[in-house]
Design a protein that fits this description.
The structure holds 2 protein chains of 2 kinds. By secondary structure, chain A is an all-alpha fold. Chain A has helices at residues 4-15, 23-48, 57-74, 81-100, 105-125, 127-130, 147-168, 171-181, 183-188, 193-219, 224-227, 230-244, 251-268, 276-290, 294-297, 299-309, and strands at residues 136-137, 221-222. Chain A has a two-stranded antiparallel sheet. By secondary structure, chain B is mostly helical. Chain B contains 13 helices and 2 strands, in the order ααααβαβαααααααα. In chain B, helix 1 (3-37) runs antiparallel to helix 9 (201-223), helix 3 crosses helix 4 (102-122) and helix 6 runs antiparallel to helix 9. The chains are: A mainly alpha, B mainly alpha. At the A-B interface, helix 5, helix 12 and helix 14 of A face helix 3, helix 4, helix 10 and helix 12 of B.
Chain lengths: 310, 309
């Protein structure tokens, strides 16, 4: 029975556009699914392997810029960013991994944060190559309608979900957990921790890069402040996973749904809109203090709290 | 050698050292918190931003000179830091969670709230304190008539630098000569051993966070006559503090001072010779170089020298 739940969920999601949702609703759904992909990718590295990255914007942005520069400089469709981004983002992940993976815990976190910022500043300054702060605009988007974008991002999300579930349940997944729980113990048991951390980073980065390529194609405009943003990409990625549940399969999707809806809700409220970062920050603080394993991870705890109230 | 080139080089070097002295003060606060609490305070730059707003309003409303404001803002930040430690960070240290980095993420949340509240309360306008000595300078030719080259020393930069040096010296005295300071250092070296020796570790943590916040608060007061102030400025200085901490060696105070000065000089050099926009990239090049070639930071070099005789 339990195995049928994901399949039923996918079928339900695939049928959703047929209901005739408004463009706005489709946009929200696409954003939720895109953030789920980024969250799931982050979760593989952060939740399962224990390497908390504060710089996933580096991979998101690189994916987006790979697609954008293909269009801008070579005049080919930005969709070709998908295959190319595997190489570009992969190489980027190996370089960042070489530098950052020698650090542990909070130092890894900050080193990745710095990497994201380096890439943002570089993209701003390499005007000839990236158009600098002007950004890249795709003159004519492939489809005006959102249905196809929806199916593309849904396919990426399903692929990501299945891949990560497969990985986590494999031998590799146990290595990841061992590294998260105690890196020295894992090392002394003969696990090549550097290798497996690099593998986790590589997969996580490429999946995040896919989301970036999709973003370029879907939104049609990027600039360094948008795709390499520290708060609006890297930190929100962490929040998506923290709110939903670290090291759970469904956590990132739940977190993405809550965060996107919350962002839209806050934006629509007059006068409170400017305070959205404060509200996110307070939410983050509350989640860390009261539900440190997220809504999915601490679901039993949440249920007992609610039952006691009732 | 072309005297103009020499002049530019020396002027850049001086600007770098003056900036580095202030950077050292920011890095010191972070490295202290790092050493004692084993967490990175990612709201460090935002704390400085808060202090800068305090100094700004003290100047604008009460006409208190930023350099005098140090004596008001630093103690205020001390209590602010202690409150953050007591009411936000301590509860999280007790919570069971999968990821030990929760505390770091918590400080990110604090930083987000602080910078956003500043935007709401004070708007994102650029502000500055128009002190009357802002553009004053001392010239080398005033001191030494027959000097072959001309160098200028901006008054607020030099005064800020001297303040930073005095505060650093006081901190050094506090950490090495007083009982409380020694207890803080003991806690940083080995928490359990310090506990067994009768050090009140919880109190030391509280004091350290307060001290770190007041150091960066002082730095904020020293920066305000020099820089524009805006709410998003915090993030940049958090990164700077972190780069200094890595460069100097984690938890090392001497390393933080040397690291701060090195970073200041390096940034100033990239700004002069490559262009202003590249200064942040220069900062990260030095950061990456430190990680790859000198993982223990400057502290490890110092330690090796001492052991090698």
């Amino acid at each position: 029975m339990r195995g049928l739940v994901p399949i039923a969920g996918i079928i339900l999601l695939a049928l959703l556009p047929l209901v005739g949702l408004s463009t706005y609703m489709m946009h929200i759904l696409i954003l939720v699914i895109m953030w789920s992909v980024i969250g799931m990718a982050w979760n593989l590295l952060g939740g399962y392997c224990g390497q908390v990255s504060f710089g996933h914007a580096a991979f998101f942005g690189t994916g987006a810029y790979t697609a954008g520069i293909l269009y801008l400089k070579l005049g080919v469709s930005a969709w070709w960013g998908f295959p190319l981004s595997i190489v570009v983002v992969g190489v980027m992940a190996l370089i960042i991994g070489f530098i950052c993976l020698r650090l542990r815990g909070p130092f890894f976190a900050l080193a990745t944060l710095a990497m994201g910022e380096v890439l943002r500043v570089t993209a701003e300054n390499l005007r000839g190559f990236t158009n600098g702060t002007l950004g890249i605009l795709i003159q004519k988007r492939t489809w005006v309608e959102k249905t196809w974008y929806y199916y593309i991002i849904l396919a990426i999300a399903v692929f990501t979900f299945l891949l990560i579930r497969r990985l986590v349940n494999s031998r590799l997944g146990y290595y990841f957990l061992a590294i998260r729980e105690d890196q020295d113990a894992a090392e002394s048991l003969g696990i090549n921790t550097t290798l497996y951390k690099t593998v986790a980073l590589l997969i996580s980065a490429i999946l995040t890069g896919f989301a970036g390529v999709f973003y370029m194609n879907y939104m049609g405009y990027i600039d360094p402040e948008i795709v390499y943003a520290l708060h609006d990409i890297s930190i929100i990625t962490i929040m998506v996973v923290m709110v939903g549940g670290v090291a759970t399969f469904w956590g990132p999707a739940v977190g993405a749904l809550i965060m996107v809806l919350l962002a839209e809700l806050i934006r629509s409220l007059p006068r409170i809109g400017t305070a959205h970062q404060s509200l996110f920050g307070i939410l983050l603080i509350l989640i860390i203090i009261f539900l440190p394993n997220g809504i999915v991870g601490d679901f039993p705890k949440l249920k007992t709290i609610l039952r006691r109230r009732a | 050698m072309d005297p103009v080139k020499v002049e530019v080089f020396l002027q850049t070097l001086i600007a770098g050292i003056l900036l580095g002295g202030l950077y050292a003060l920011i890095g010191l606060g972070m490295t202290l918190i790092m050493g004692v609490m084993r967490i990175i305070n990612l709201a460090h730059g935002e704390l400085m931003m808060v202090a800068m707003y305090m100094a700004y309003w003290l100047f604008t409303l009460l006409h208190i000179d930023p350099y005098l404001a140090v004596f008001i803002v630093a103690p205020a930040m001390f209590f602010f830091g202690m409150a953050i430690q007591r009411f936000l960070i301590n509860p999280v240290l007790r919570v069971e969670a999968i990821l030990p980095e929760n505390q770091v993420i918590l400080t990110v949340g604090i930083g987000m709230v602080l910078s956003n509240l500043a935007t709401i309360m004070f708007t994102s306008d650029y502000r500055s304190t128009p002190v009357e000595y802002a553009s004053d300078a001392w010239y080398l030719s005033d001191l030494w008539r027959s000097s072959p080259i001309e160098l200028s020393f901006s008054v607020p930069w030099v005064v800020s630098f001297l303040f930073a040096v005095v505060i650093t010296a006081l901190l050094w005295y506090f950490l090495t000569r007083t009982d409380t300071g020694k207890s803080i250092r003991a806690t940083a070296q080995d928490r359990d051993a310090a506990l067994l020796m009768g050090v009140n570790v919880e109190r030391m943590k509280l004091l350290t966070f307060g001290l770190g916040a007041s150091l960066v608060g002082a730095a904020g007061c020293l920066f305000i006559p020099l820089y524009y102030l805006y709410p998003a400025l915090g993030g940049r200085f958090t990164l700077i503090a972190f780069v200094i901490t890595i460069l100097g060696g984690l938890g090392s105070t001497v390393g933080a001072i040397i690291g701060g000065v090195l970073l200041g000089v390096f940034e100033s050099m990239t700004a002069t010779y490559l262009g202003m926009g590249w200064a942040p990239v220069g900062r990260f090049i030095i950061f990456v170089a430190a990680l790859v070639f000198l993982p223990g930071g400057i502290a490890s070099v110092l330690r090796r020298r001492r052991l090698g005789g």
